[in-house]
Specification:
The chain is mainly alpha-helical. It contains 5 helices and 3 strands; from the N terminus they run βααββααα. A 3-stranded antiparallel beta sheet has the order 1-3-2. It is elongated.
Length: 131
Amino acid sequence: MSNLNVKRTYSISDLAREFDITTRTIRFYEEAGMLQPERDGQVRVYTGEDRVKLKLILRGKRLGFSLAESRELIEMYDPSSDNTHQLKALQRKINERREGLKQQLADIEIMQNELDAAEERCQVALKALEP
């Protein structure tokens, strides 16, 4: 039998070790319908496609995408096409995320200024109380 015809499979512990996550995390993504491993009795058997999906889920999480957003992007994947639709959707999500982060940064700067002003008022009030 040729090795070219043998599909590589992974156990849950293989994937957990490779991506430095817990098996519970992987089961969470299964329960969310993001991964559908095959079963060999009680043992989960993951395909290369499951591995790629998990990699994309974790990448989406690092980028700040919700699980629903990651699911949407993954479901657009179509190896028979050039994936233009998926890539454009990803680009839109990245731009939306970037704009959200810019707004958060502006909000943080405002909050820091307000904290500085409150601290300054406290210091003035404490100084006025000194004998």
